[in-house]
Amino acid sequence: MSNTDDIRWVAQVALFGDKSAFDKLTCKYQSSIRRFFLNLTMGDGPLSDDLAQETFIKAYLNITSFKGISGFSTWLYRIAYNVFYDSARARKHYDDIDEQEIDGQQHTLSEFSAEKMDIYKALKILRKEEQTAVLLFYMEDKTHKEVAKIMDCPLGTVKTYILKGKEKLSVYLTNAGYGNN
Amino acid sequence: MQDMETTDTDKMLKSFFDEQKQKVEDNGFSQRTLRNLPEQTDRTWIVWVFALIGVIIATAIAINTGLIVQTLQLLQHIPVYYWLGGIFCFPLVGGIGFYFAQDRTYRLI
Q1: Do B33 and A19 touch (CB under 8 A)?
Q2: What's the domain range around A80?
Q3: Contacts of A23 in chain B (CB under 8 A)
């Protein structure tokens, strides 16, 4: 399924309010958007699903504002990013995440291995902007420019976030023994 | 040297995130989202309005330039067997067009 399909489905939704076309877009992007939220919420599945659903509903309601300059995926991540930070501000979820709760959700690793690496613990050492930028760049395979569009900040700032995040994660992972296996 | 370190770090992080990257199964998420989509007003009329405007403009141009009259005069001079040839060719041309417009999930041979 190419970007041409995306444009065709977006046109059908924008012109006719075609829900089946929007369903195809939802099926295509649900995994990446939900994964993005899962990582940002440190594994909170129900909250991630709520935020993802809100993202898709907002995308449906505002689909006429999609200009096609950037890809549909980038546009959708931009909405997801705004939904997450609106939600975080409203619930103060982001800053008040209970560390013990997170630890409880995850297994405590006595022996480090690549397969069991706790991504949430690694992400926790980053600032929230760094988390977002690093996730979009390394996990969701977005370019620097796309990350800048999604986060609505200058390209240089995004590069700084990614560089700082990379340095911190590099130290963390090396200390944890990652890459030595 | 620093570039080499950067590349190694990038590779390590890429590898780390790739290992953690899992596909989230749909498990009814799309259906739930579809059910919760609000109803929107039917905007099909936009297409019909533009189609009507197009037809009106085309007809006005055709009348003003005498195109319709010329075309009708031309048609009168076309022999009957040309008409028949055109009619019999239509399914063939239509079939070829239809074949190329389809997703290529099948082949004729």
Answers
A1: no
A2: 1-97
A3: 30, 34
CB A178 to CB B16 under 8 A? yes
Q: Do A90 and A16 share a structural domain?
A: yes
Unique residue bearing structure tokens 């009168």: B76
Among residues A75, A97, A119, the one where a domain terminates is A97
Give me the CATH number covering residue A174: 1.10.10.10
Residue A149 falls within a domain, yes or no? yes
Identify the residue among B3, B31, B34, B35 best suited for mutation to test binding to A, counting A beta carbons within 10 A and taking the highest: B34
- Residue A120: name the closest of A129, A110, A111, A107 by CA: A107
Q: Mark whether A140 and A176 lie in a shared domain.
A: yes
Task: Say if residue A62 is in the same domain as residue A88.
Answer: yes
Query: What is the per-residue DSSP string for B32-84?
Result: HHHHHSPP----THHHHHHHHHHHHHHHHHHHHTTHHHHHHHHHHTS-HHHHH
Q: Answer yes or no: is A102 within a domain.
A: no
User: What is the tens place of the pLDDT at every residue in B36-79?
Assistant: 888 877 777 888 899 999 999 999 999 999 998 898 888 888 88
pLDDT 10s digits, A137-151: 999 999 999 999 999
Contacts of A76 in chain B (CB under 8 A): none
pTM over 0.80: no
First to last CA, chain B: 59
The residue among B33, B35, B36, B39 with the most chain A CBs within 10 A of its CB, best to mutate, is B33
How far is B25 from chain A, CA to nearest CA, in Å?
A: 7
